[in-house]
């Protein structure tokens, strides 16, 4: 079966790359992926599948029922397909046709690869013991996240997978390589929005004002102790500020300052403690300096936890598919993923596939110059299909 799947992946590679290029040329932002949803559904229909559309507003789900005991076991496979608000500058002949919107996180590659895996699995369905659920998720880049939206909209109303898998391209990893990590892998994330209020006035008479810029600056500095003196050295935690706006002028002290940031960590109890400490420090400092602070915490994605058994399976199947030299164990990452919602409910593994072409410059995710080695699409299509086939094979009841 290994060689058969590799052969099928290679035979269809050009068509699956064409899927990716179409998606790349026609990116859509989170919760606006109507054309993408229709394109994916049409490709699934071409395979003889019957997709359900509009789950979580713009999501798609389809089932591949194996010929052997289709109701006995189900493996879920997920890809995301929303784009980012960036102007592309890759110079590719299939660059984005939508100004200000780009697939700069590889979601086009993920979706094309899962469509490729679906093509393979439908061709070997007579050898599948169980079923495969294909989940094409919208809005991964925007709260509340497509995973939660789809689940709230009944994604698992009829069937809940017994185990679930997803991958993300990794531009710092060379093409041909696959990586994974057991246990805690990616951080939780919460967005923070401050409004620091004072009393504005003339810059030449600051004693007649309550300066919100000064107050907000003290809050930024004071909150650094959250990581350096409150977080355990054994608990990765990141607090970052990305926006600080005081709409005054050279000689005008404004009435208020707006700030935005994130807090990320790997423990739910500590996560909630962080929220309390951020609120206490921010509001206490503002009041002590004669102002006030409103803080809104947008409770985001939990941390990604990879099930030990599922992750070991991915590792072992990757060794079978690629060879041990091409498989690596990964470190924890402070980036976040709403696949965490699936992993909270279902034993899961979220792994990585390299997309960097050796010898070319390295461009990170969420950049307007991100490049994908398209050979990774054939690899991903084949390996995702192989991993699903092997997972079903290992779950099938053994007979004497």
Task: Identify the notable features of this structure and list them briefly.
single chain, 400 residues, alpha/beta, Alpha-Beta Plaits, 2 domains, eight-stranded mixed sheet, four-stranded antiparallel sheet, 16 strands, 35% helix
Q: Structural class of the secondary elements?
A: alpha/beta
Question: Mean pLDDT score, rounded?
Answer: 96
Q: Using the 3D structure, state the CATH architecture of the largest domain.
A: 3-Layer(aba) Sandwich
Shape: elongated
Distance between the termini: 22 Å
- Rg measurement, Å: 24 Å
Q: State the name of the first-level CATH class of the largest domain.
A: Alpha Beta
Largest sheet: 8 strands, mixed
- Number of distinct beta strands: 16
**Strand fraction band?**
25-35%
CATH fold category name of the largest domain: Aminopeptidase
Poorly predicted sequence stretches spanning 5 or more consecutive residues = none
Structure characterization notes:
The chain is an alpha/beta fold and 400 residues long. The relative contact order is 0.20. The strands form 4 sheets. The protein has an 8-stranded mixed sheet, with helices on both faces. Helices cover 35% and strands 25% of the residues. Strand 1 (52-55) and strand 2 form a beta hairpin. The mean pLDDT is 96. The chain has 2 domains: 2-187 and 303-395, 3-Layer(aba) Sandwich (Aminopeptidase); 189-300, Alpha-Beta Plaits. The chain has 11 helices and 16 strands.
